[in-house]
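Weekly puzzle thread! Below is a chain. First person to post its structure in token form gets bragging rights.
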Amino acid sequence: MVRRNKDLGDWGEKQACDFLVRYGFAIVEQNFHTTTGEVDIIARKGSDIYFIEVKTRLEQALATDEAITGLKKMKFQRAVRAYSYRHDIAEECIVLAGLVVLVDKRARSVRFRMVTW
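Winning reply:
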């Protein structure tokens, strides 16, 4: 079960990257890890740097903000701070976002829902 979830998550992150590129984002880095958290995708659009947490869900998905728990957001924000400090990114350029990849197996379709916070 864990392997299946990891495979689904990896596939969802690939779909998310493709989606972002289609909408004018440049992927800067994937799977940035620190001891206190991780960021799935770091992307640039214009002068903004987007730090994106990706969640992949089959059919009945939670709302984006429900899919990303408070503890996950806290760890995510710690990783964002570490990355932005290391790369000297101005706070006003930082955008935090959640992106849900919703897979409908019956319709053989994928939908995306992105929210910033």
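Puzzle host: Confirmed. Bonus trivia for everyone else. The CA atoms of residues 33 and 39 lie 7 Å apart.
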